[in-house]
Amino acid sequence: MTAEMVAPAWMHEQITAEEYDSWSEEQCAGIEIVDGMVVVSPSASKRHNRLARLLANALDAAAGPDWNADTDFDVRLQDVPLTNRRPDVIVYRADTIDITPTRPEHVLLVVEVVSPGSETTDRIVKVDQYAKAGIGFYWRIEQAATGTPLVYTYLLDPATRTYREGDVYAGTLKITAPFAAEIDFGQI
């Protein structure tokens, strides 16, 4: 069995930003590009998707007119080599809704919900990539054995382009400026 029988050729070659931008939405769905190479992730669980959707809805409601919160679209971290990540939740400037691709300077917060198989990527790799890209806030949500998710928050240090650890929340998350919301994860 050859690699081509398992996956198409474009998954074994470095992809440029121009090539990626010419692909259809169907080709881009469910993949990320890291250092020009396609990374395919398995479908998320229902619990994972529900958690991301509820968080995005709460953030969107709290954001006011200047910010939007959504799920499931690319953030272009760099053009060469191409790196596109698809965070579980993205809070971005409302005035950039029609600008493609979404760039780090459009983004306030990215959230990753950790799933089995994504632990190292979400805890180490993406943290570093988002920080180097200059995204101000990163949240990582762990689905704890107790059933109530834990939310780990990080704040960018612009001088070092690294994140400082913030608070850890369990059960209820109170969001303050620029948002004002309270999210009860116990209902998930």
UniProtKB/TrEMBL annotation:
Cross-referenced InterPro entries, in alphabetical order? Nuclease_put_TT1808 (IPR012296), Restrct_endonuc-II-like (IPR011335), Uma2 (IPR008538)
Which stretches are transmembrane? none
CDD domains according to UniProt? DUF820-like
Query: Domain named Putative restriction endonuclease: which ranges?
Result: 18-143
Pfam families from the entry? Uma2
Please name the GO terms that the record assigns under molecular function: endonuclease activity
PANTHER family given in the database record: SLL1072 PROTEIN, SLR1083 PROTEIN
> What is this protein's record name?
Uma2 family endonuclease
Q: What is the taxonomic lineage of the source species?
A: Bacteria, Bacillati, Actinomycetota, Actinomycetes, Kitasatosporales
